[in-house]
Amino acid sequence: MRYTPKSLHDHEPGVTPAATEPGVTPAATDPGVAPAATDSGIPVAVVYTADDLPGGQEALARRLGLPGEPPFTRGPYPTMYRGQLWTMRQFAGFGAPEHTNERFRFLLGQGQSALSVAFDLPTQLGYDSGDPMAAAEVGRVGVAIDTAADMGDVFADIPLDQVSVNFTINATAPIILATYLVAAERSGVPWPALTGTLQNDILKEFLARKAYRYPPGPSLRLVTDVVEFSSRELPRFNPISVTGYHAREAGCDAVQELALTMASAAAYCEAFGARGLDFDEFAPRLSFHFATTLDLFEEVAKLRAARRIWYRIATERFGATKPAAARLRFFSGNSGTTLTAQQPLNNVIRSTLQCLGAVLGGAQSIHVMGYDEAYEIPTEEAVTLSLRTQQIIALESGVTRTADPLAGSYYVERLTDELEARATAVMADIDALGGAAAAIEAGVPQRWIAESAYRTEQDIASGGRPKVGVNVYADDGAAPGAAPPGFEVDPLVAGQQAERTRARVAARDPQPHARALSRLADDTRSDRNVMPALIDAARAGATVGEMAGVFTAAFGEFTEPAPW
Amino acid sequence: MTAPRILLAKPGLDGHDRGLKVIAFALRDAGAEVIYLGLRQSPAAIVAAAVAEDADLIGISVLSGAHLPLAEQILARRAEQGAEHIPVVMGGTIPAGHAQALREMGVAAVYPAGSLLPEVVDGLLSLAGQQHGTVKAAAGDRGDLYALYAEKSPRS
């Protein structure tokens, strides 16, 4: 049965007061006029007034609170960027560990304040660099990690007790965390000193990002193992980042992104609670990850609404009693799908607007896309420009002087209310399907995303959605992909990395290695937390592929159902 | 008339399937028979499925940068299985220089990031239609497909 969320694109006339007001223009057909609805289809009036704020100023004040106070609409901290700027966290990683180490040290030298590791696909899925499955992909979209020694090489000469590190890793998150903990141990940094975030959000892999390996049930158990272990051993580390970013990039709109993120977070919290973890204890370390795309005010409204919705879920559904357990903190990634291969320098402007949206929305850390990211791994020049974009907004634009500067804007408050209401309606649809995990397993939100992506492409083809340089103000005869000098991963990396791992495997002590893998197999098949056995295995020189293979033997592998 | 049969797949480990699904929907709405293999398909499995399904075209999407080695493997498997009559088309994040290399290697058409939907769909239908007409002499009039497509896209 085909399911379409009724609250989105085919809302009834009159549902949105703004839609019925005089002066609302119909959707634009002339490419010279911007469409009169937001990116997610919310009709927009020509002008907003105090009448658009239900309950007047007093009710608004209750919905907002102050920055750092419930319901946190205006931001998680009282002084926001006056107290501390957001973390400038450019996502990077490619080639062999030493190549990524070099890029990391370059970024830190340019004033970046934290690191964010991109892993290659074999590492994300649990294949060693010498595995036939890895053949064409080693070191391409991120760095290749086969052993804890590789992880040590990635962070050589970088003080792990001083730099916060983000790991975009999911299906193999517990394995990669184990290699990182061993690398920290070897460099003399105690685990409690480590700060950073492990993405560890497997639901969105099934939903949108598609780097899953094991079926949903065992995958959720691994996520929970990591969170349980971290709550004991890693007090300053965020063991999960609940992510709507990839669903958005795969095609859904802002309302769906918000609803799917919140529904997933609730599903995780149910699972952690079922493990016996106390919400007030683990929730302060939950992190979120949203896209910030080009519809500036809708994006700001979405980010403000996200904090308010999470406060409500945390307190009403999970009984949070500590304010920190109901306070949403997030990382914003700019949208790669809004960038164009045509006229690539235009992407600098798009990225600047998206970064501004994340700042006005109160982000805790931000990644800005490289202008060349539509067609390649960003060059050093492009990465530097992304970092400079953040620095210029932070230091020259003045937007950081006051917390939540758009509060009280009739339009932004109206949109914030609207995003909250619409996302809550979609969450009810997801709950009716049995919650995020069940809905995703049934493939329902995946169809929303694919259909929405299709509509977007049709709108770009018809001109209904203007893209400068693509369907308006395009250059005659400029072929897409006609690009400035590109970035190339060294083609010798795969062979060299596989050879290095073979040498390390040959040099390891076989007995502790065999014992550790056998313990890992036992713990995987029992209900024991897999993290201690994984750390032992990583210490004993087990490869990522060996550890992932233990999970595959116990859990099997997941295959996605058809898209229609 | 019968519709051309187009097989769509993602080889390798790359999970970016937004583009391939959009193409699948558009081809379906244009009246083609779409065989959607989906993610993590090996080159051998893709070619074997194309032969078994009597496909008129193989459409491949790669956004991980691994397009050159993967194309090479797919074309090699195609030759081994005597299926060189089935054109292979690629899309994805493919730099201009690589698009040329892919065509020289034997890829029938390349649609890098930034290609517009009607252009891709027209190109695929045209290539698949030629193949369909050659192999199945009674395949009917490809013009009907274009008429159908013109009605549906771009969406009004």
Task: Record the SSE blueprint.
The complex is a heterodimer of chains A (564) and B (156).
Chain A: H1 17-20, H2 56-64, H3 80-83, E1 87-88, E2 91-92, H4 97-109, E3 114-117, H5 121-125, H6 148-154, E4 164-167, H7 173-186, E5 196-198, H8 203-209, H9 216-233, E6 237-238, E7 240-243, H10 245-250, H11 254-274, H12 279-282, E8 286-292, H13 296-317, E9 330-334, H14 346-360, E10 365-367, H15 380-395, H16 410-432, H17 436-441, H18 444-462, H19 493-507, H20 510-525, H21 531-539, H22 544-555
Parallel strand pairs in A: 1-10, 2-3, 3-4, 4-5, 5-6, 7-8, 8-9, 9-10
Helix pairs in contact in A: 4-6, 6-7, 7-21, 11-13, 11-16, 13-14, 13-16, 14-15, 20-21, 20-22
Chain B: E1 5-11, H1 18-29, E2 33-41, H2 43-52, E3 57-62, H3 67-80, E4 88-92, H4 96-105, E5 109-112, H5 117-135, H6 142-152
Parallel strand pairs in B: 1-2, 1-3, 3-4, 4-5
Helix pairs in contact in B: 1-5, 2-3, 3-4
Walkthrough of the structure:
- The complex is a heterodimer of chains A (564) and B (156).
- Chain A is α/β, with parallel strands linked by helices.
- Helices cover 47% and strands 6% of the residues of chain A.
- Chain A has 22 helices and ten strands.
- Chain A has helices at residues 17-20, 56-64, 80-83, 97-109, 121-125, 148-154, 173-186, 203-209, 216-233, 245-250, 254-274, 279-282, 296-317, 346-360, 380-395, 410-432, 436-441, 444-462, 493-507, 510-525, 531-539, 544-555, and strands spanning 87-88, 91-92, 114-117, 164-167, 196-198, 237-238, 240-243, 286-292, 330-334, 365-367.
- In chain A, the strands form two sheets. Chain A has a five-stranded parallel sheet. Chain A has a five-stranded parallel sheet with strand order 2-3-4-5-6.
- In chain A, helix 7 (173-186) packs across helix 21 and helix 20 packs antiparallel against helix 21 (531-539).
- The longest helix of chain A has 23 residues, at 410-432.
- The termini of chain A are close together.
- The relative contact order of chain A is 0.14.
- The model of chain A is unreliable at 1-29 (pLDDT under 50).
- Chain B is an alpha/beta fold and 156 residues long.
- Chain B has a single domain, classed as Cobalamin-binding domain (Rossmann fold).
- Chain B has six helices and five strands, in the order E-H-E-H-E-H-E-H-E-H-H.
- Chain B has helices spanning 18-29, 43-52, 67-80, 96-105, 117-135, 142-152, and strands at 5-11, 33-41, 57-62, 88-92, 109-112.
- Chain B has a five-stranded parallel sheet with strand order 2-1-3-4-5, sandwiched between helices.
- In chain B, helix 1 (18-29) packs across helix 5 and helix 2 packs across helix 3 (67-80).
- The longest helix of chain B is centred in the C-terminal third of the chain and has 19 residues, at 117-135.
- The radius of gyration of chain B is 15 Å and the shape is globular.
- Chain B starts with a strand and ends with a helix.
- Mean pLDDT of chain B is 87; it is low at 136-156.
- The chains are: A alpha/beta (564), B alpha/beta (156).
- The interface between A and B is large, with 53 and 39 residues.
